[in-house]
Amino acid sequence: MSAIIYILYNANASVMGKMHYTYRKITAPANESPCAACDLTHNGLHLTETKEWAKTKSRIGAEVKQLHKDEANQEVILNFVKAQDVKYPLVLGQPSAGEEMRVIMTAEDLAVCSKDHENFLQMLMEKSAANGLNVNLRH
Questions:
Q1: C-alpha of 130 from chain center
Q2: Fewest CB within 10 angstroms: 3, 10, 21, 49, which?
Q3: Residue ranges in 1-139 assigned as alpha helix (H)
């Protein structure tokens, strides 16, 4: 069985959610992002994933699921986030489907590496291993 990595955005997928995120993004101070995961995967305000993210994602040796807050309707995810008292964006992981969820990267972790995909991969590997997830890099 393969590990599952969940990248949870601090934004909603609906039209109103996108408008709200755009407002938060353009009014935020330059050194603060409302969603470091959005910066990592979509370079901020783009509606599609960047080529760099597609390449980075293909190197992650696990199933990667990217979810907005309103798409994370699986009770397991919502209840886990609430129980852990963590804030969005974040990265969760499971050793395999049905196993216990773990916090892999916090909003603070993502803020550190949201502009550097190699740093993201390194941190993801280190934190996954520390949390008992077997996630390897593909080359």
A1: 17
A2: 49
A3: 15-27, 36-42, 51-59, 75-84, 107-113, 117-130
